[in-house]
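This section describes the prediction task in plain terms. A model, or a person checking by hand, is given the sequence of a single protein chain and must write out its three-dimensional structure as a string of tokens. No templates, partner chains or ligands are provided. The sample shown here is typical of the held-out split.
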Amino acid sequence: MQSTVRDFGEIKFKTTTYNGITIVVRSTDEWVNASKMVMTLTKNNQSRLVDLFKSVNWTEYYNYFKQMMQSSSNEIPFVEFYEQNLTYPHDLRGYYVHPKLVNYIAIWASPKYSFIVSEIMDTINKNSLAQHITFERNARRTIDRLNEEVMEQMAIADNLAGDIEQLVPRTVFDQQKQAYILILNVIDTVDNNTTFEMRRLCKNNMKIGLLNQLKLHSVRFFDNLPVAVTSYHEIQQALIANFEQVTFRYNKFTLNNQEGLIEDVINVIIDEIERIHD
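The expected answer:
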């Protein structure tokens, strides 16, 4: 099978040819140019689709088709599933029909070659599904990457805000002294390296349900964080002092794997928090 894509304004038309039979699909709704298909099936420069659309058999079939489509997909009442378009370039004009109507029209035009039409449509549908799956995967990767970048920017802002706080003399109210939590998670393990993520959050206005979820799904949940821990700087310095080859990227850090690594990291953070408490 050979396929080509042609643009007309913002609309793309995909033309697939197999054994001399041509199928043109409109990208906006995946409707098929039935006129073009019938002319290649019958080897005639006229489709005679008007004769089909006036026939009793078509009317009965099409009315039932509309009824089933509208009941199953909540389509707007009285919507049509085929249309004639004479505004496209000459070789793209004709009747465009819903893809589920193609087989009926192909059998009407040429029972002999209708099987080939079915094969072409199956291939088009498979390719369309594969493209949709690829698009979904790429979109998901993009969203994940954007979310990660947002979290990193939030961590930068949190660090900057903490650094500014440290420079400004202030009185800390008792109810604010233990208003923060620190969450530790393992986000990646590649080869001999493990990457951790730290998130410092204010729990003053946090709902109990969210707080419990964070406790449940974290590698370690540090509550009642000292207000002096206004950035990750203190913990970063403690990790550097206790581990070799530690690398940082905003609120993430990567360490070489070793036995009991997670427990060792947790203990270093606990010791640093207790030191600051004192």
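For orientation: Residues 171-277 form a domain with the Gyrase A; domain 2 fold (CATH 3.30.1360).
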